[in-house]
Design a protein that fits this description.
Blueprint (H helix, E strand, L loop, with lengths): L2 H13 L2 E5 L9 E5 L4 E2 L13 H10 L3
Antiparallel strand pairs: 1-2, 2-3
Helix pairs in contact: 1-2
Length: 68
């Protein structure tokens, strides 16, 4: 996915009361956190090896089924 896709998913997150953050280095490189803005907490991804991080595709799917 491209930077434009990342921006699109980030805006989707914001509309739903979340914030999309890049996860960083190591095993989480290229993955994202979905943060609940009000609770300041990471959301669980449901992916066993990446409990709190999402690929961009996973983040978009998760956001399509969750809202605040």
């Amino acid at each position: 996915m491209s930077n434009a896709d990342e921006k699109r998913v980030g805006k989707l997150a914001e509309r739903k009361g979340f914030h999309l953050e890049k996860a960083g280095h190591g095993t989480s490189h290229g993955r994202f956190y979905i943060m609940d803005v009000a609770e300041r907490a990471r959301q669980r991804s449901g992916v066993a090896e990446h409990e709190y991080s999402f690929s961009l595709e996973e983040a978009e799917a998760w956001l399509s089924t969750h809202s605040k």
